[in-house]
Design a protein that fits this description.
- The structure is a single chain.
- With 230 residues, this protein is α/β, with parallel strands linked by helices.
- It has two domains: 138 residues, Rossmann fold; 63 residues, Winged helix-like DNA-binding domain superfamily/Winged helix DNA-binding domain (Arc Repressor Mutant, subunit A, Orthogonal Bundle), CATH 1.10.10.10.
- It is 46% helix and 13% strand.
- It has a six-stranded parallel beta sheet with strand order 2-1-3-4-5-6, with helices on both faces.
- α2 packs parallel to α3, α8 crosses α9 and α9 crosses α10.
- It is globular, with a radius of gyration of 17 Å.
């Protein structure tokens, strides 16, 4: 099945480059371009978009506002947003994920990495570059309000095993790595992740990362917990 991509960037030359790259992949197709966040939102609402490649700084409505509008609309629940920007540090990482983005990449990524990122977020996984991940963790250290909107009481919705799974997701483990760590099948690991997302109202794994740090389930600097058997 072909993944339908909308490119939202205010620079025509960059849009043309992204279009040529994406259209070169057999399983990806550019279905539209937007030069403003407002235009991107309108095109997404018109339908036929799976993933939005979203710039942050755009006129009329910036990429973060457009992302919030997309992810906050129940009718667009299946649309994923991948933030692609020059600014891979400071609050952009935190704001992008809080806005509902499924991934965050700097514009310096290689062609194959970008194509793989689109595929990754389309299937419901989260994606953060290493620099962005470090920036996100650093920001949580410096934000006294980080528990706002995601009180630790939310964790009571989860079983102990689901809490462990969310913590491992926040540390960057894939489903296969989760399965190895927990000594379960990949399908069981995926089931745990999906149940946790449902209970916490998370769109995808990226939102689990945010919740894990906001609630204090995972703290910056922590390593992987010891392997347990189920």
């Amino acid at each position: 099945m072909t993944t339908r991509v909308l490119i939202a960037d205010d620079q025509a030359l960059l849009r043309a480059g992204f279009r040529a790259l994406i259209d070169s992949a057999d399983d990806l197709e550019v279905v539209g371009e937007a030069s403003t966040g407002r235009e991107a939102l309108q095109l997404v609402r018109a339908g036929g978009v799976d993933v939005v490649l979203m710039d942050v700084r755009m006129p009329e409505m910036d990429g973060l506002a457009a992302t919030r509008a997309i992810t906050g609309d129940p009718a667009l629940a299946e649309v994923k947003v991948l933030i692609l920007t020059t600014f891979e540090l400071d609050d952009y990482v935190f704001q992008a994920l809080r806005s509902g983005a499924s991934g965050f990449l700097g514009k310096g990524v290689g062609p194959d990495e970008l194509l793989d990122a689109i595929r990754l977020v389309d299937r419901g996984d989260s994606l953060l570059s290493p620099v962005a991940t470090r920036a996100l963790i650093t920001r949580f250290l410096d934000r006294p309000e980080r528990s706002e909107g995601a009180a630790p009481e939310r964790l009571r919705l989860l079983t102990p095993r689901e809490q462990e799974v969310v913590a491992l997701v926040a540390l960057g483990l894939s489903n296969d790595e989760l399965a190895e760590q927990l000594v379960v099948s990949p399908l069981t690991a995926k089931t745990h992740v999906n149940r946790a997302m449902t209970k916490l109202g998370a769109r995808d794994r990226a939102q689990l990362v945010v919740i894990a740090y906001e609630t204090g389930l995972v703290r910056p600097g922590e390593g992987r917990p010891e392997r347990q058997r189920e």
